[in-house]
Design a protein that fits this description.
By secondary structure, the chain is of the alpha/beta class. It contains 19 helices and 14 strands. β6 (about 240-245), α11 and β7 form a beta-alpha-beta unit. The protein is globular.
Length: about 500
C-alpha cells in the first residue's frame, strides 16, 4: 500500500517527483552518514545493542501491525495509484512492472549489494561509493533502486557499466516479496531514504546486513517521531549500522534508534564535480557576449518571486544583467514564465530554446541534469530551498565549480557544511531579497572578493571529499559479510 499513515512513513524534502504514498505530515527521515570519534561510538553502540533483544518482526508495535494488515488489503488502491501516476507522467510505462516487484533483468550469479536512494539527490550522492565498492570488491554485483522517473534517467546516464538499476517496488507486501525473492541481496544500503515498513521488515528477514548511510532527520521529523518512540525504534532496529550526515543527525538518529549512530561527514562531499560538455560550456559562454550573469539554483515555490524581485533591484545598477533561474523541479518552468510576464520581464525557457536571446532578462533553466553547465556559466550562485523552509540544497556542487555561494537562513539539511564554509569565508548568508540583491551586486562588481570566496569554497569542498569517502567506505566494508553468498 502506498498511502501509509502519519505514524509510519514520512515525506522527503529532496525528491523531484512525489512517490505514491507520501505521508501528510510533511516530514522526511532521510538516513545517512556523519563524522565522529569512532572509539566512543563503537563502545556506545556495543553498550546500547547489548541491551536490545534480537530483531523479531512478530514483535512489531501495534501501529506497524495495523499498517501491514491494511496494506495487504490495499493492492487495488496501490495499482490505481500507479495508473494515476502513469497518466501524470510520473511513472515509466515500459517499466511499470518494476513498481510491482517484477524485475526487468535477470539476477546475476554471486554476491549482490542492493543500494536504495529514493530520488535524484540520494542516488547521485552514492555514485562515488558505488565506484569504491566496485574497485575494492569487483566480484560484487550492485543493484541500485530509486523511486522516480527523473532519478532513473540520471542513473541510466551515470551508473558505471554493469551496475543494475530498477525502480523500487511500492510498499505492498506482495510487491516487496516479489522483489526480494528475485534479487536475493546479500546486503542492503538505504541512502537518505524514507521508511517504508513493509520493505524494511521484509528485507530484514532476507538480507544478511542492512545499513542506513548518509542519514538525515529534520528537526520537525525528529519531534514527530519522538511522539511514536516504539514505532521508530523498532524500524531502526532492523539496521545493523546507522551512519549519519553530521553531528546533529547523529544525535537524533542515536536518540530515535537506541543504538549509536556514526558520522564521518556528508557523503555528498565526496561527489565529483557535476559534469558538463566542455564544448557546450565554451559556446554557451560565448553566446552571453560578456553579459554579467548570476545563477539562482534549485529554487522552490515562494523563492522564484524573490529572485524576480532581486533581479529588478539589480538591473537598476547593472542594466545588462542576466539572471539564470533553475527551479528545483523543472516542470515549474511554466509557472516561472507566468511570474515573469506578470512582472513585465522578458523570460526564456531553456526547454524550448537553448541559446540566449540578447533581450532576455531572466533565463529559466527548466531542464534536467544541467546544473554542471549552469554553475560553470556563473561565478555567483544562490543555492535555493533556503529562503523558505525546505532546508537548503547541496552547496558543495557550486563550490566544486568555483562559484561564490550565497544561501538563505533555512539550511537544516546542510548545517555543518554551511557552517564550515562560512567559517572559512567560502559562503555568505542572505535573509531576504534585499540582502540577496546587495550581495549579488557586490560580488559581481568586486572580482577580488568574488574570487576569494570562490577559491575558499572550492578548497573546502575538495579537502573533505576523499576523507569522507574513505571513512564511510571503510566502515561499510568493516561490517559487510566476509564471505560472498552465491545465488541459490
Amino acid at each position: 500500500m502506498n498511502t501509509p499513515s502519519k505514524s509510519v512513513c514520512s515525506e522527503r524534502h529532496s525528491s523531484s517527483e512525489d512517490e505514491p504514498g507520501t505521508a501528510a505530515n510533511g516530514e522526511s527521515i532521510a538516513l545517512g552518514a556523519i563524522t565522529g570519534a569512532e572509539s566512543k561510538s563503537d563502545l556506545l553502540s556495543k553498550e546500547l545493542k547489548s541491551s536490545q533483544p534480537p530483531f523479531n518482526a512478530d514483535s512489531a508495535p501495534t501501529g506497524l501491525k495495523a499498517y501491514q494488515t491494511l496494506s495487504r488489503a490495499a493492492a487495488p488502491i496501490a495499482k490505481l495509484a500507479l495508473q494515476q501516476r502513469l497518466k501524470r507522467g510520473k511513472e515509466d510505462p515500459d517499466r511499470i512492472g518494476e513498481r510491482r516487484g517484477l524485475a526487468s533483468q535477470d539476477r546475476p550469479d554471486g554476491e549482490l549489494i542492493w543500494i536504495h536512494g529514493a530520488s535524484v539527490g540520494e542516488s547521485l550522492s552514492v555514485l562515488p561509493l558505488i565506484e569504491r565498492i566496485s574497485l575494492r570488491r569487483p566480484e560484487i554485483n550492485i543493484l541500485v533502486t530509486t523511486g522516480t522517473v527523473t532519478s532513473a534517467q540520471l542513473m541510466k546516464e551515470r551508473l558505471p557499466e554493469g551496475v543494475i538499476h530498477q525502480f523500487i517496488p511500492i510498499d505492498h507486501p506482495a510487491f516487496v516479496a516479489q522483489f526480494l525473492h528475485h534479487w536475493r541481496p546479500t546486503a542492503a544500503l538505504f541512502v537518505e531514504s524514507e521508511f517504508w515498513p513493509n520493505l524494511i521488515l521484509a528485507a530484514r528477514e532476507h538480507v544478511d546486513f542492512m545499513a542506513i548511510i548518509n542519514g538525515r532527520v529534520s528537526p520537525k521529523s525528529f519531534q514527530s517521531w519522538s511522539q511514536r518512540p516504539h514505532t521508530i525504534r523498532f524500524l531502526l532496529s532492523a539496521f545493523d549500522l546507522i551512519i549519519a550526515q553530521d553531528q546533529q543527525n547523529q544525535d537524533r538518529l542515536t536518540a530515535l534508534s537506541g543504538q549509536a549512530a556514526k558520522t564521518f561527514g556528508n557523503l555528498k562531499n565526496a561527489a565529483p564535480p557535476l559534469p558538463a560538455d566542455a564544448e557546450e560550456v565554451q559556446s554557451t559562454k560565448a553566446s552571453l557576449n560578456g553579459r554579467p550573469v548570476w545563477l539562482a539554483a534549485s529554487t522552490h515555490e515562494g523563492e522564484e518571486e524573490l529572485i524576480i524581485d532581486t533581479h529588478r533591484r539589480l538591473v537598476q545598477e547593472i542594466p545588462d544583467l542576466l539572471t539564470i533561474l533553475a527551479p528545483r523541479h523543472p516542470n515549474r518552468g511554466h509557472h516561472a514564465m507566468d511570474l515573469l510576464r506578470a512582472a513585465n520581464l522578458k523570460g526564456q525557457q531553456r526547454s524550448k530554446k537553448r541559446g540566449f536571446d540578447p533581450s532576455t532578462d531572466i533565463y529559466i533553466a527548466d531542464t534536467l541534469g544541467e546544473l554542471g553547465l549552469l554553475y560553470r556559466l556563473s561565478t555567483v550562485a544562490f543555492v535555493g530551498g533556503s529562503l523558505i523552509k525546505k532546508g537548503g540544497h547541496n552547496p558543495l556542487e557550486p563550490a566544486r565549480l568555483g562559484c561564490a555561494i550565497l544561501h538563505g537562513p533555512h539550511i537544516f539539511n546542510f548545517v555543518e557544511t554551511y557552517a564550515d564554509m562560512r567559517k572559512k569565508g567560502g559562503a555568505a548568508l542572505v535573509r531576504n531579497e534585499r540582502d540577496l540583491a546587495t550581495s549579488v551586486g557586490r560580488l559581481l562588481k568586486d572580482e577580488k572578493t568574488r574570487s576569494t570566496i570562490a577559491d575558499v569554497s572550492r578548497s573546502t569542498a575538495e579537502a573533505s571529499a576523499e576523507r569522507t569517502l574513505n571513512l564511510i567506505s571503510d566502515e561499510i566494508f568493516r561490517h559487510l559479510p566476509k564471505k560472498a553468498h552465491a545465488a541459490q
